[in-house]
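queue> holo job accepted (S-adenosyl-L-homocysteine)
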Amino acid sequence: MPGTRTRPPRHLADLDPPARRVAAAELGGEPFRGDQLARHYFARLTDDPDEMTDLPAASRAGLAAALLPRLLTAEREQSCDRGMTRKTLWRTFDGAYVESVLMRYPGRVTMCVSSQAGCGMACPFCATGQAGLTRNLSAAEIVAQVVAGARALARGEVPGGPGRVSNVVFMGMGEPLANYPQVMTALRRLTDPVPDGLGISQRSVTVSTVGLVPAIRRLTAQRPGVTLAVSLHAPDDGLRDELVPVNKRWKVAEVLGAAWDYAAATGRRVSVEYAMIAGVNDQPWRAEALASLLAGRLAHVNLIPLNPTPGWPARPSPRRRIEAFASVLRDSNVNVTIRDTRGRTIDAACGQLRLEHDRANGAKRMPQDGERNPLRAGQAPAPTVR
Ligand code: SAH
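queue> job finished
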């Protein structure tokens, strides 16, 4: 229940290397035990004290219990695409549920992670948005999703042989920039070199946002070097106010202005996410409007066929409609990709995370698919056809 919140247990992945040494010393060990634990967690991908034979037998279990507590328990695992897409439903220490998805492609493995349990941004087409926010995840709870994927890959549990996580996208549950400090800490742990962190390259990490302008500006000032993705979904404020309600606060022009400043500061191309929703945002005139916003900018558009969710009566645009939209953009020299969404058959595709669990849990569940959060009953707008 939100309101009776306690913080997730402290974990090594919440701490930077000096803080780990202090923590190890406070636990009665030598400071370098903190570094050893980090090597186990980030390099060897283990949190099992029995495997930590370089630690004194007497203190192993205590150090691991204090600094590597089990934060996430796999409640359920599903796979599709011949095992190349794996979704994990995790239960947190306080009974919240979050999901992560591992997607293996030729030459790369992407982990899609959650940054919050639920989401407060209320985008009507998104299954997570339909349910509301439960709580922010801690940095270590975010990192643990990636470590779990890295461990499964390292142990050869994913078809295609042993491998490593090359990319991380914050496109699971939650709005990462609404959980800014924890997400920033998680970014450091993901990208710090092994064994301080997981050693994933900054440019291979993508933070996706609805467009929280002050947070984008803060991110720009800190220049973490990660890729920024903006969930635009409409080029005009009238429609974007409905599809991405936070647009009522920060308009398209402001969001894109902040995105271009990020691109200028980092030299990184901004991804513009655009869910293709039949009859809602897929008209040629909207393609033209989008093209004129993006022409000449350091941007790349991802057109994502809508994944229908039971809570919102809309369909994905037909393929030829998406092709036509893409070619309008190409005609203005805007980079565009039509994204093939993985994981549809296991409800792991965009915006669908958590559905399956809620179906399975019947009456005990949070208000979710098909029904509105009672707090917002009746307020979710139906798709507008223009
Ligand atoms: N809150 C962040 C990140 C999580 S969602 C954000 O909004 O960017 C990741 C992406 O999936 C976003 O672009 C989001 O708009 C998109 N998405 C959510 N539900 C979807 C659906 N049903 N179909 C297609 N894309 C969806």
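queue> The pocket of S-adenosyl-L-homocysteine is lined by residues 119, 121, 123, 125-126, 171, 175, 208-210, 231, 273, 275, 304, 306-307, 309, 350-351 (CB under 6 Å).
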